[in-house]
Amino acid sequence: MKSLENRTLDSKREMDILAALDQIEIYEVYTCYGERRLINAGGLATTHCCRKGK
User: Fold this and answer.
1) What is the pLDDT of residue 21?
2) Residues contacting residue 49 through CB under 8 Å, at least 6 positions apart
3) How many Cβ atoms from other residues are within 10 Å of residue 35's Cβ?
4) What local confidence, expressed as pLDDT, does residue 31 receive?
5) CB of 10 closer than 8 Å to CB of 16
6) What is the pLDDT of residue 5?
7) What is the SS3 assignment for 1-54?
8) For the chain, which residues make up each domain, given as ranges?
9) Dihedral sign computed on CA atoms, order 43, 44, 50, 52
10) For residue 48, which phi and psi values (nearest 5 degrees)?
11) Are the CB atoms for 50 and 35 separated by under 8 Å?
12) Domain of life here (predicted)?
């Protein structure tokens, strides 16, 4: 029974970590989008972005 509890806790921890990584990725995408909008508003080239090619 203790083994099952440990596996359950490990799985929950892994899911929490993956959820946090997803949130970081979403934040980076929105940040990059915001940078592009600011650059475009200023009439500058859109070569600068936090994640090129995405």
Assistant:
1) 93
2) 32, 35, 36
3) 14
4) 83
5) no
6) 95
7) CHHHHHHHHHHHHHHHHHHHHHHHHHHHHHHHHHHHHHHHHCCCCCCCCCCCCC
8) 1-40
9) positive
10) -95, 125
11) yes
12) Eukaryota
| pLDDT score, position 51 | 54
- Residue type for position 13: R
CA atoms within 13 A on the CB side of 37: 6
Q: How far is 26 from 38, CA to CA, in rounded Å?
A: 18
Chain position carrying tokens 């099952």: 4
Q: What is the distance between the alpha carbons of residues 12 and 6, in angstroms, rounded to a whole number? A: 10
pLDDT in tens, 1-54: 899 999 999 999 999 999 999 999 888 888 887 777 777 776 555 555 555 554
| Token pair for 37 | 């909008």
